[in-house]
Amino acid sequence: xxxxxxxxxxxxxxxxxxxxxxxxxxxxxxxxxxxxxxxxxxxxxxxxxxxxxxxxxxxxxxxxxxxxxxxxxxxxxxxxxxxxxxxxxxxxxxxxxxxxxxxxxxxxxxxxxxxxxxxxxxxxxxxxxxxxxxxxxxxxxxxxxxxxxxxxxxxxxxxxxxxxxxxxxxxxxxxxxxxxxxxxxxxxxxxxxxxxxxxxxxxxxxxxxxxxxxxxxxxxxxxxxxxxxxxxxxx
Length: 235
What we know:
There is one protein chain. With about 240 residues, this protein is an alpha/beta fold. It contains 9 helices and 6 strands, in the order βαααααβαβαβαββα. β2, α6 and β3 form a beta-alpha-beta unit. The longest helix has 17 residues.
């Protein structure tokens, strides 16, 4: 029986089209270039390599012994404008609050960035907890240990969790330990159980899953739902 729905933050609770992560990525590149005295193109290549090997640029710098002040890093890369980029959408808030499960956020970012985003979007009080990279002792997604730490904090087992993400490698790892996984704005692949066009489609899909799981909730087919391998959502 499902007990909790766990959301990623960036490009999951808001659309990729907002391009907020593009702005943050540019600042990560600039931080690496400035701190290590390399051309911007080389900094971008370093960031891509760090992300591929370690999941985040910060983890890559830490693992490979680059000198980095973590507080300064987060302050610099998240110094981006939100007005005109992210909007408060009452429909998102309503959708979240209608999900009859505990709700939490799991992010590879820091708590300050996460709360700033959630407050700007008007949904910070929709979640019982935001688990950030410091709470994970810097063991970021998709490291399986990051999920184990988060689930222990939330007092749930993997099979009791629905995990919503925008990054296939992260859902792949979560699915491998037993979570039900939903990918947002991604084509169908073996990396997740369900695929949705928008976070707004999560509510209807969860209603179906809970109906099949024995919860007393109505079943509603979401047009945006693309289950894997042609299997329909259980009804």
